[in-house]
Design a protein that fits this description.
Blueprint lengths: L2 H24 L5 H10 L2 E3 L4 E5 L5 E3 H14 L3 E4 L5 E3 L7 H9 L17 E2 L14 H11 L14 E4 L13 E7 L5 E7 L11 E8 L3 H15 L10 H8 L1 H12 L11 H8 L15 H9 L1 H10 E3 L5 E6 L10 E3 H14 L3 E4 L5 E7 L3 H10 L14 E2 L13 H11 L3 H7 L4 E4 L13 E8 L2 E8 L11 E2 L4 E2 L3 H15 L6 H8 L2 H8 L12
Parallel strand pairs: 6-7, 7-8, 16-17, 17-18
Antiparallel strand pairs: 1-2, 2-5, 3-14, 4-5, 4-13, 8-9, 9-10, 11-12, 12-15, 14-15, 18-19, 19-20, 19-21
Helix pairs in contact: 1-2, 1-4, 3-12, 6-8, 7-8, 10-11, 14-16, 16-17, 16-18
Length: about 550
């Protein structure tokens, strides 16, 4: 039996175990209190209107077969929609509890699972959605993500950590994996002789008390990746707080101990693991690398004459190509982003029909492969330039060709008060109202690159704290209101935004965003982006535009 078959056998056994636990709960043999940690370890939440099931998509990579299965499941067991999240997962927001066993069996048939997508464990390993194809990539992170996935997924000691732990890996010059806001962030580098290794960051995270990850190790040789991560998690498991869930994340431990003391503890623990059974060898790496061989690309010229003619003759196609396609490491190919964002749907939501269409396009144009992005969009990673036009025509008809990747209308939003028990406000409705306010794509194009994120509560699932304009739902006098922050960044220069004043009603927010944009458009110089103009001006003119007078700057954006 090969490793993949053995893993599927174990995962199927885990699914069967959970199905038995569901049966015991429904029969009254398990109390709600006893069942709660079991369902959470298997990605099943009890939400505002119905159970929610979270499905892990390892490092955001889906096959067309898997996407079609998700389409069938959402059509059969949900309301015909799936929600793609900022952590490269898929959520079914309205499933019936009695249908969960059938859903899990259907998922397992295509090697998709909900195991450890929730609970106090190591969560889904995330990565660059352009992994393996990006023009700026040093080393493909996918094999390393797979190694970490195999190590962590059913780890017997890490299923009951103090709190959840999230790992992200990038191998490109541009950080599209957001490693600075993860518990463990890994940047793949090479040393002077070209050998790969990892810059290891620890202690990042969003939520109630956001923190940026700190460097723990500047260059870890690749052989030690698993053993070093094991040492970090052991230290966290041993020293992390369990008395207060709001202070139980790794970032709190890093903040209380300091980087130097944490490193001392990790190195002490690692001394018992280094060069042991967790040390990686070429024999370990080769079969995993073989899973990520290049697809059968054609030798194509970078300059495709027919494609160039299409661009010159069709402004709408040209706008989409400029904004939603990206440089590929192979000549004659592009990476394509399919935007889920427009005013008629919730950010990250795809209908069952749309999923099936994307699966068809993946087969026709991208070797059967789809990626999920942190911005809640989908990516076809291997599209020939000559195929861009027919793909665009089909995507436009399906409502998946908004030319807005990275623009104001590419809004990241959590499910919010429509689904989530924790939400204080309706993030979906507000995002749609802002979308409608800036529906003219020409306006969004003129504004340029701008990240606007809407979270329904302090937990910050939509990453509002690191958005250029972040909006967070709060409760004020028993009504839903929204706090605005500006100046955050999620990438290479990661930082948190600053709250600019008191929370506003939902009705006031779209106009407030318009005033913030007005300040930017009035003061930008040359090709300055919103974030750069904000750095130069400071927050005062933005505060005056929204509130009529300068407000005291209270705090860094949280959540």
């Amino acid at each position: 039996m090969d490793r993949d078959d053995d893993e599927q056998r174990k995962m199927n056994a885990r699914v069967a175990e959970f199905l038995a636990q569901i049966g015991r709960y429904r029969a009254g043999a398990l109390t709600e209190e006893e069942f709660r940690p079991l369902r959470l370890q298997n990605g099943l939440y009890v939400m505002r209107e119905a159970p929610m099931l979270r499905i892990g998509i390892p490092y955001g990579v889906l096959s067309s077969l898997q996407l079609r299965r998700l389409a069938r499941i959402t059509r059969t067991y949900d309301r015909g929609y799936g929600h793609f999240t900022t952590r490269q997962n898929v959520q079914l927001n309205r499933v019936a509890f009695e249908d969960v066993p059938e859903i899990l069996v259907e998922l397992a048939a295509v090697r998709l699972y909900s195991v450890r997508t929730s609970g106090n464990c190591i969560r889904n390993i995330t990565s660059d959605p352009f992994a393996g194809v990006a023009a700026d990539e040093r080393i493909d992170p996918r094999p390393w993500c797979e190694i970490l996935r195999r190590w962590s997924l059913l780890h017997p000691d890490f299923g009951r950590l103090p709190r959840k732990l999230k790992i992200a890996v990038t191998g490109a010059q541009q950080d599209r994996a957001l490693i600075r806001v993860h518990d463990i962030g890994l940047e793949i580098l090479t040393n002077d002789v070209g050998e790969p290794g990892f810059r290891v960051l620890v202690g990042g995270g969003l939520g109630r008390n956001p923190a940026l990850a700190r460097e723990l190790e500047p260059f870890l040789p690749w052989h030690h990746l698993v053993s070093f991560c094991e040492a970090i998690v052991r230290v966290y498991d041993r020293h992390g707080r369990r008395d207060d869930p709001y202070k139980a994340r790794l970032k709190t431990l890093v903040g209380s101990l300091g980087t130097a003391e944490l490193r001392r503890l990790v190195m002490q623990e690692w001394a018992t693991l280094a060069d042991g059974s967790l040390t990686l060898t070429e024999a370990d790496l080769d079969p995993i690398r073989s899973r990520f061989l290049e697809p059968p690309y054609q030798d194509r010229p970078e300059d495709d004459v027919a494609h160039r003619r299409r661009l010159s003759g069709n402004p709408a196609f040209a706008a989409w190509t400029r904004r939603n396609t990206h440089p590929h490491r192979r000549p004659g190919y592009r990476i394509v982003t399919l935007s889920t964002k427009h005013a008629q749907t919730a950010s990250g939501d795809l209908s069952s029909d749309q999923m099936e269409q994307v699966a068809d396009w993946a087969d026709d144009y991208s070797f059967g492969e789809v990626r999920i992005t942190h911005e809640q969009n989908l990516v076809l990673p291997h599209v020939r330039k000559c195929d861009l036009y027919p793909l665009w025509v089909s995507a436009r008809a399906a409502g998946l060709a908004s030319p807005n990747r990275g623009l104001l209308t590419d809004i990241i939003a959590c499910p919010g008060g429509r689904y989530c028990d924790l939400a204080k406000a309706d993030s979906i409705g507000l995002a749609q109202a802002i979308q409608a306010r800036f529906a003219d794509s020409g306006v969004a194009q003129d504004i340029g690159e701008l990240a606007l994120n809407v979270s329904g509560c302090v937990n910050g699932c939509a990453h509002h704290a690191v958005a250029h304009i972040g909006i967070r739902g709060v409760e004020k006098n028993d009504r839903a209101c929204y706090q605005i922050s500006i100046g955050g960044d999620a990438g290479d220069a990661a930082r948190f935004g600053t709250v600019i004043g008191p929370a506003l009603s939902g009705e006031e927010i779209p106009a407030a965003v318009e005033r913030l944009i007005g300040v930017y458009l009035s003061h930008r110089r040359g090709g300055e982006r919103f974030a750069e103009t904000g750095d130069r001006l400071g927050t005062a003119p933005f505060c005056r535009a929204v509130y009529g007078e300068e407000q005291p700057i209270a705090k860094v954006a949280n959540g």
